[in-house]
Design a protein that fits this description.
Blueprint lengths: L10 H7 L1 H9 L3 E2 L4 E2 L8 H6 L2 E6 L1 H18 L3 E5 H4 L10 E7 L5 H12 L3 E6 L5 H5 L2 E4 L12 H20 L4 H22 L2 H11 L4 E6 L3 H16 L2 E6 L17 E5 L5 H13 L4 E5 L8 E4 L8 H5 L1 H13 L18
Parallel strand pairs: 3-4, 3-5, 5-6, 6-7, 8-9, 8-10, 10-11, 11-12
Antiparallel strand pairs: 1-2
Bound molecules: 2-deoxy-2-amino glucitol-6-phosphate.
Keywords: Aminotransferase, Cytoplasm, Glutamine amidotransferase, Repeat, Transferase
GO molecular function, one term: glutamine-fructose-6-phosphate transaminase (isomerizing) activity
Protein name: Glutamine--fructose-6-phosphate aminotransferase [isomerizing]
Length: 364
Amino acid sequence: ESYDMGGHDTYMHKEISEQADAVDRVLRGRIDDRFSTVHLGGLNLDAREARGVRRIKILGCGTSYHAGQIGAQLIEELARIPADAEPASEFRYRNPVVDPDTLYVAVSQSGETYDVLAAVQELKRKGARVLGVVNVVGSAIAREADGGTYVHAGPEVCVVSTKCFTNTVVAFALLALHLGRIRDLSVADGKRIIDGLRRLPEQISEILAGEDEIKRLAAEYADAKSMMFIGRVRGYPVAREASLKLKEVSYIHAEAYPASELKHGPLALIEPAMPTVAIVPDDELLEKNRAAMEEIKARSGRILAVAHQVQEKADHTIVVPKNENELDPILMGIPLQLFAYHTALAMGRDIDKPRNLAKSVTVE
Ligand code: AGP
């Protein structure tokens, strides 16, 4: 990919549109069908060391932090290693306990974000092993880490990250599968995940082909002063990232909450002027998510659902193709990138360079 716009009006639109190819690239040459696993050459972590990992702590900022949250869930689900993600900026200021059996993973598109780099340097000073999940080859974080994997999203110019988010989550799925197959993930489950990963590029193209309908929906909700984004477990980081995307590019205020937390406070905000975007995967929490939508409808809230089937409780549904439960979050965020883009376009925003933001925050 070059830096030219390739016929698109903005880099954001170009980068959203490139995602099927970008995902194909992060998968290429890494799948090993013989052992139902993947090879990640740069990890510098042999099987014995991987088996010794007791915890994984993922550090990143903004969109990369959200990708890390999905990554932590994938690692827990596929590799059964306790994992969580934390903003690097917070981690490095709270004098964290650095545990020798914890593997630290720094996530960054640019590889230059100061808060992430400083966290990596502090961890290394304390003797921790740090991997990088980074897009820009040869960047400071990639150089500082003990090993890692590149996410191969290609150059991302728009300040607002889209294709790199998706590729980073896929890279985490590869890492989780790799660790899982060294530990207790069966051959059959390894194959199931590989088959799911291989379906992603085509399913992404299917989602992107629905752009006209998403544009129409964006026009319908563009009058909102504020929007609520909800999801549960796998859907929650998707909701957080979609809410950040909308805020960054359209300047519409947005809140993201676990759907389960609505009744503990944010339900007070629900009224017709505060629409909700609900992430509703067809998984073990489907009925719980439907119940949350019912609560919102009972308060006259408008609902736009992103789901695998039309949701009766919602006013509108964007239907996305179903993959394996663990991989569904990769696809469910993509229509909401287009939703944020078309909302911002309708509002005449400076899409590639939103006010007050920089592509890479290299200062504290
Ligand atoms: C992305 O939409 C944002 N501009 C921002 O949150 C970004 O993800 C964050 O600053 C981290 O950047 P990095 O991935 O380059 O480290």
